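Supplementary Methods, section 5.1.

A reviewer requested that the exact input to the structure prediction be made available. We therefore reproduce it here, unchanged from the version used in the analyses.
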Amino acid sequence: MWGTILVGVLALIAGVAIGFFVARKTMINYLKKNPPINEQMIRMMMMQMGMTPSQKKINQMMKMMNNHLK
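The structure derived from this sequence is encoded token-by-token as follows.
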């Protein structure tokens, strides 16, 4: 009786832990392939703020975004 309950609880804990790490890895891979923001969005955002977006500034911001995801 106690053995069955112990095995069930251990299986539940293992399932939750494995599920968490699989979901985390999947989400990281998804964000790497489909970044939430791209160069065009940064360019539009800078223009809306009244800044003139140079390619150098856009590249710097993209690099910061990519480093943040790692």
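The CA atoms of residues 14 and 62 lie 38 Å apart. These observations are discussed further in the main text.
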